[in-house]
Amino acid sequence: MSAQPKxxxxxxxxxxxxxxxxxxxxxxxYHVVGNATTGEEAIExxxxxxxxxxxxxxxxxxxxxxxxxxxxxxxxxxxPIVYLTAYADEETILRAKExxxxxxxxxxxxxRELRAAIEIAIYKHETDRLLTEERTRRQxxxxxxxxxxxxxxxxxxxxxxxxRITTWNVGAEQIKGYRSExxxxxxxxxFYTPEDAKAGKPESDLRLAAAEGSIEDEGWRVRxxxxxxxxxxxITALRDEKGRLxxxxxxxRDDSDRKRREDVQRFLDHATMTLTSTLELQETLDRxxxxxxxxxxxxxxxxxPNETGHLVQVAxxxxxxxxxxxxxxxGRGLPSRVxxxxxARHVFRTGKSEIxxxxxxxxxxxxxxxxxxPELLRELGVLSYICVPIQFRGKTQGVLNLLRSASARRxxxxxxxxxxxxxxxxSLAIDNARMFQETQEAIRVRDEFLQIASxxxxxxxxxxxxxxxxxxxxxxxxxxxxxxxxxxxxxxTRQTARLSRxxxxxLDVSRITAGQLLLQPEEFDFSEMVRDVxxxxxxxxxxxxxxxxxGGETALVGRWDRLRLxxxxxxxxxxxxxxxxxxxxxxxARASDGMVRLAVTDHGIGINKEAxxxxxxxxxxAVSLRHFGGxxxxxxxxxxxxxxxxxxxxxxxxxxxxTTFTVVLPLLSSVRKAASKALDMxxxx
Amino acid sequence: MISERTIxxxxxxxDIRGSVADALEEEGYRVVCASNGKDALHLLxxxxxxxxxxxxxxxxxxxxxxxFRGEQRKDAELASIPVVVFTAYGVPSETANQLGAAGFLKxxxxxxxxxxxxxxxx
Lengths: 685, 122
Hints:
The complex is a heterodimer. By secondary structure, chain A is of the alpha+beta class.
């Protein structure tokens, strides 16, 4: 008997008997927690006092007798009940049995009988309870085992506290390759890679699981056949109700497919990033081979055709740097074996990928790769080979050779899919780099031509312009009055000056694109410069039928490139005269907020909205070429010059009413070099 | 004009030489011409010509403007003669800077530009 006295509840309608009973129980060291005289009272009080046992008189006053009350209590609570009875007829005993009583005490009772009945009832009740619990637990365990056994996608097994395997399910067999009888009793470290096992990971995993209750992990594990798989594992410490460690449960999922998909995607994303971040051709080629190593190949060769159409190895990579040089100097006589039905040349010819998982004979491999000295291959190592075409613009433009030398990593069809994907990305990058190189070359040739052309055009212009100027000068000095002659001389001079400007513009474009628009700042009066330029345009203005008026402030002194700003004013003026419809042109220069603003306004044909956005572009014009000639460079150059000074140029126009161009320049010009700006433009070509 | 100023025009194009000479002579200058750097050096060294200014083309056969300027700067007697770079090649202002020239004149120049360059740097 435990130290705690058992708690008894008494249901007895005869007070004398109840008091006697209570006395006796106390004497026997029981604790009477309460009593009741009717069935209803008993049900209510027992529900709140939760005694260890109820002593129940069968015959009670009222509507409910003891058997009914006991039935109601047993329905709600698992408390043993012992009946008290003075006599027992058959019918009463039968009724009492239905309530599964734990004993009877017949009145009048003696102490011994009472005590025996109580102790037996309590013991029986406890035993019944334990039996039921155990039955339930066994049933649950059996059901759980059936579930666990049938799970195929998860390895679920138990280990003892030391990590020896004690149970094994179908999923475990499926994933790890061991049958139950081979693995039971073995230590679970056999599932770890040799590196992890050596590092003590199995033991530390168990320690951690024991400490934390449960740990989750992801990593490589090993199957019975030595192959590796990417596992997601959960180890749970199993403890009894006292907290003693019984062992561990382990659930392992084979996540190799997901891992592989993620790895491939990451690899290809990285490839795209790497390949798109350069436009230099050789760098692109080198990056293609370097990308393949080591994830996709131990070594990799990229072949592109040369000018005569023969495949040439253009980029090389090897996991071992010292072997890379060897791979670079393989001496591949690719053109020699035309008849071969496999290998690099064949892929180049057919445009179809090839996979040779088992390529153990160096002689065969040498043939496929077009290598004249097979002994070199032994050093580099070849066991498995993939060759994929590089294709763009609907044509096979080269091949990518991927080689593996480690036996555990022979190529599979999924490697081929990745190789093809890499080759597609490489193709795109190579095509881009090639196009960029060709474009760069074309621009270089164009600029060189413009330089030469401009120089050659300026040479004859030099004596022509000087002679005309000298002639006009001499004519003026001579005092001879000849209107027609002087008008013709003026026309010739004007047209020559115009030709000079056009030639200069041509060269400016190539200078701007080559980043050579360098400014030579000097201090001068902006308004005076404007007047000078306007003065030079008087002849042209007369010819265009436009009168130019100059307004605004004077003495706007600052630091700029004078010749360049003269060019801006000239370009704006010549536009205003060209499109000015024989109406006046106004030029106005003002300073405010540390800026100089030059406005050139005409009242001519104007510019429609659609054209406003593009008139500052190279070779752009707002009007049809048939009606108005010109190179379409004036505004482009003006904008570049304004921006090189840290300024800007804007346009306002109303079709049919005229146009105002406003140049804004900082007075204290922080002149920056136009080089970087010009390079930006290059990429927009 | 108190003392006649002498300008040495170095250019391989005879029409250019002629036009420049015409224009400058009209203004009272004395003009001597050379068709390349080598001829110019010959005039300076052997003929002991000492012009007030050299108008120097850059692209010329036999000895170009860069080579001439190099020789001239090495020669203590000639180094101080101011040079105006007179070219259609590249960026004349930059060439002038690189060669330590006194000025530059872009081809084709207006008559005013030519006279200004000669007056300001002579």
